Every structure is written in structure tokens, then in C-alpha cells.
Amino acid sequence: MRLDVERVRKDFPILQQKSHGKPLVFLDSAASAQKPQAVIDAVSEFYSRSYANVHRGVYELSLRATEVLENARRKVASFIGGEERETIFVRNATEAINLVAHSWGRQNVSRGDEILITHMEHHANIVPWQLLCEEVGARLVVAPIDDRGQLDLHAFEALLSPRTRLAAVCHVSNTLGTVNPVAELARLTHACGARLLVDGAQAVPHQRVDVHGLDCDFYAFSGHKLYGPSGIGVLWGRAELLESMPPFLGGGDMILSVSFEQTLYKEIPYKFEAGTPDIAGAAGLAAAVDYLENLSLEAISRHEHDLLEYATARLASVPGLRILGSAVPKAAVISFVLAGVHPHDIGTILDQQGIAIRTGHHCTQPLMQRLGVPATARASFAIYNTREDADALVEAVETAREMFA
Ligand code: PMP
Description:
2 domains
């Protein structure tokens, strides 16, 4: 099945507008994806017809709202090959990782233990582990990458030791596009008796993810990069791990009973969902999952890969332009620098042409240091992008180069 991009584009109302008088070319979906009408409608429909708080009500609206939330959980769980009770709604990937660091981490990591991450991690998969290490006296160990932005597998394996309690790796790097061999990392990590957490924020929108096939222990992602609303994200975890973990946040909805002497918690996933959840966000996320399943993840991957190859070849012909990250396989994210032009200037000049890209360190400052640059310009491609978008990008980059020549 081929992706019908023209049809897809019509589903995204925001793409119909102009920016600075030019057709909008949106190349920043790695930061957050735009929303199809189906998602916008699902949120609006929920607020218009079914809104009430969930779980506690006995009346029709509350039961309907609960069904919306639980239906979303079913959809999301099946989308990633997990079980409903293993699928926890959180605010975003950041919160998902923090949940594991606080709950599993405090219970399982102690003085002298190690947590292994990689040099390409987003701050969201660095800082929670640093905080945990500081608190319990553990050590953060970093697996190196090579000059192409690929994880050094031998070094990763060598850095695993009986002291390692957890490896935490991104599935796809938001800066380099590197796709990590998660199943292989799971094998190595488990062979050492450690657990594997995968930051899937940049993977789920672009390829089929099956948490059991990957054999990871935790998988985290955000709804907003998956064409869903912002404010909702997902932590998937193995049931037996989640069951043995203490709650992360305490409050309403996560308890069976409370007395001043003793509080009993609900079963998973509710034990980890204190307070009123983002119900409308869940409605929107379910619609986003339906939308992507209808398009087919396989067709999406093929389409984006074509754009990656096309844009890479065209950008590579721009004099003075250097692409950072040439791992195989690679997702449709292109970070680049242009001799003599600061990335922020590139971003501003492109903006004048109606082209939205991201510039800066992309929340991967240690990676920037490894690459020897303070910042990059980053174009990221999604289901609604076309080869014409890549052409517009290359033309505007040429303009930027000429302006600074
Ligand atoms: N991990 C990766 C790889 C990311 O790209 C991002 C978002 N840029 C995050 C984690 C954090 O996502 P969020 O801000 O939605 O929590």
C-alpha cells in the first residue's frame, strides 16, 4: 500500500494556511506533529457530548467518559502489542521515564549500582537517571557512539556489568535519526541481569513497534509526536515489574481504600494514575492511533524513508553543508550545519520562506559536544511531507548560503 500524501495533507487543516505569505512547509514534526481533523474532532466531540470525570461516577456521562478512556487504553495497548493493564497514561515521554526512575529506580537501584545510557540520549532520558544516581549513590555510565551517530555495540556490551541495574536507550535519536537495534540491546542487557527502558518518543510515529518483539521492559512515548494531543503520553511496562513497583504519585483514583493508618492501592495500571487523567487527550490519542493504523505504519515508514533519501541526496549537494548522522537504519530526521551560517540564522531565513525547522541543541547537549557543534538545523519529515517540501528546504538553504557568502 502506498501513502496517498495529497489525501493525507487534506486531513490536516493547519497545513492549508500560509506562513509569511508562502505555503507552509512544516518540517518540525520530530518536535511535535500536526493534528489530523479526526483527532481534532475526537477531542471536540468528547467535550461536546461525553464529558464528565471518569471512574467514580454512576451516571451515564461519567460511564461514557470512562469508556472513552478505557477504549483509548485498549487501542494504544494493541498499537504497541502490549496489554491494557501494562499501559499507563501519563503526560508525556518525560513523565513516563521519570515514573520509572522514581518508582522502579528507588526500589531497585542502590549505592554502587550503575545505569547505562547512550551518548545520543535526549535530556529526558539523562536527567531523571542523574537525579536517581545522585539520590541513591549510583553511577551513570554512557555508551559511546561512532562518528556516523551509530551506537558502539561492542562498547555497550562491555559497559554492561553485574552492577548494571538498567539500560535506558532511545529507540530513535531525535537529533541524528539513528534507529537503535533495541531487540539486540535487550538481549545484551538481559544477559547481564539488567532491565531495558526504551525511550520510544521518536519511534512510534514512524515504524511499527511491538514491545514484546523488542523484548524491552519499559517503553515510553508521547501522544503529541504521534499526531495526538499534547498532554498525554504512555508508559508501557511488563506487568510483573509494574505490579512490584510502588506508586509514583499518590492521590485520588489510584487507591482501593484510604485511612490515616493505611492506604491500599488499586491494581495496575490505575496504581500509577493518580488524579483526573487527560480524558480528552486519550480520546484524541485513540483517534490518532486509528488514523495511523488506517494509513498503515508500513506505508508510512516507506514514504518517510523515500523522503529521507531524496532530501539527503539533495542537501548533500549544497556546498558547505554537512549532515550529522548517517546511521543505518535511520529515521527521517536530518540534522545539518552550513559553513559560515549559524543554525539559528538558517532557521530564521527558512521561516521567511514559510519553512518551519528546528534549530539548537534539540535537548541533546552531550551529543552536541560529542559532535563538536553547539547547535544544528534539523528538518524532520512526517506523513504529510512531500518531495516538494524537500525541494523548498534545499532552495531556502541555498538562499541562506548565498546571503552569508
Ligand atoms: N525523548 C526523545 C527522543 C524526544 O525526541 C523527546 C521530545 N523531543 C522526548 C524524549 C521528550 O518528549 P516530551 O517532551 O513529549 O516528554
